Known about the structure:
Layout (H helix, E strand, L loop, with lengths): L1 H25 L3 E6 L6 H12 L5 E7 L4 H7 L5 E5 L8 H8 L9 E5 L16 E7 L6 H4 L1 H6 L2 E5 L11 H11 L4 E4 L8 H15 L1
Parallel strand pairs: 1-4, 1-5, 2-3, 2-4, 5-6, 6-7
Helix pairs in contact: 1-4, 2-8
Amino acid sequence: xxxxxxxxxxxxxxxxxxxxxxxxxxxxxxxxxxxxxxxxxxxxxxxxxxxxxxxxxxxxxxxxxxxxxxxxxxxxxxxxxxxxxxxxxxxxxxxxxxxxxxxxxxxxxxxxxxxxxxxxxxxxxxxxxxxxxxxxxxxxxxxxxxxxxxxxxxxxxxxxxxxxxxxxxxxxxxxxxxxxxxxxxxxxxxxxxxxxxxxxxxxxxxxxxxxxxxxxx
Length: 217
Ligand code: MG
Ligand code: ZN
């Protein structure tokens, strides 16, 4: 009984995700879903990415949080249009919440839309939102065992950004091991190592993104 309820929720989610996807592609929009545990640096990475690309591309953001508009205010400082979703307790975004948020964004005037999911390495992996790409952000302070413990997140993602590499000297974390373990779960992952604090690796990430955006034009 419980299994069939969960299945119905995921099927309903998938139907709306496909509607979202149609709208995104009608508007030739690249949509990326940012997922990570709390504190891995999703919002900081968004800020840096927007600042690097905003002169050349039109970027919007949907911010998902259980509560508060703190992250949306941070993103708003970059000048990008931003819509905050407060899930009011739910630990992931679903396609219906995203559909509602889209009422507050002019998709025809965007090239790139980021969706920052609720900080959680578990259930966001189960809910398609209609995005083109899923990105998992993992900070080195979380340890190199995460691809072993949360394999679904790494399996469904297209991108892995290993963040806070400036902290490597202070952490018991081997980034080669993160990559090796993540690739075992998903050989197709595109990998980046970045530090939002020092700026290391950000050029190769934003350069890759520029290439993706030019492909669509
Ligand atoms: Mg955030
Ligand atoms: Zn959840």
